[in-house]
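User: Okay, second chain of the day. Same drill as before: sequence in, structure tokens out.
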Amino acid sequence: MDQNGDEYLTDIHIQVEGPDIQKATGHAVIRCNDRNYAIKRLDNLPGVTLIPVHAAMGTYLVTVTLLDGKGEAATTEIPLVAHVFENREGNLFLNGEPFIVKGVNVHGMIPESPERNRHMMRFLKEIGFNMLRGDYPPVWEVDMAEEENMGWMVLAPFSVNSTDYFNKHYGPHAFAQMREVTRRFIRAYRDKPAVWLWNSCNEVTNEIEDFLVTLYPQYKQMDPAQRPVVYANLFGQDKSLGQDLMAVNYYFGIPQSATSRQPLIERSLVEARKAGLPCIFTEFNCWYGPVYSKGIEALRGIYEFGIDKVYAGGFLYLLPRIRTGTRR
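Assistant: Same drill. Structure tokens below.
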């Protein structure tokens, strides 16, 4: 339901084409979470049919059945990611409702233990988190988040580097090779309903705007769900090109306070507003990390301050790494 109490719908596009389609009739059944969302007769063959459905989390299973002139049926099933993120006048909406990212970076997510991983996700969910962020997570970990009704922002393998590094190691056509890396990355995750946001790169310097602009079209061309693309700005960068959702990383040092970052946090929001984009924190904390005193200060002085200034939430950095084995 939207703010006016109306049911929020999204459109599913079904395109049927082929040399003998003019002789066929057909229908489509759309299911999500074990319930029928729409049954639609396909009359305009060949062509595109728009089917309005209730926005939901999970995967729509679109089953298309065509009956040819001889009465023989052909059926195909197509899975589609079933959530809709929108930028409404600089505010983030998910399936028609205002959405706040309550996330955590999970680079320390016990990758060797699926059972403990699931316990960690459930614990995070119970204390209020709704999203996870990490670089190139294993696919089973993303599937597990879907089962626990949590979202992922997956980070492509471009983090804390200069474009000079890419040019040095990949030659004069480095950006073309980086686009191919991006395409492989998208193919690995685009069919996963738990992927809510794409993180194209993190804290890249030098020709960053050119880099962002060259990566962005790959997501728009290859992701049928058109999920928002995010760049994690290095402290003070405030770039907005090549993004659907602007993001910033903010820390404070040991002798500093979280409130010392607030003027810069406000400046980042001003830049996001100029671009007409929502703004989130992709990382925030003290360099101490999530220890009790400084973690609480970061939560109040950065995250909650940002929420009050109409940030759309963010991701705490860093989930403590839990190691197994014997200490020597």
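Residues 1-6, 320-328 have pLDDT under 50 and may be disordered.

User: Thanks, on to the next one.
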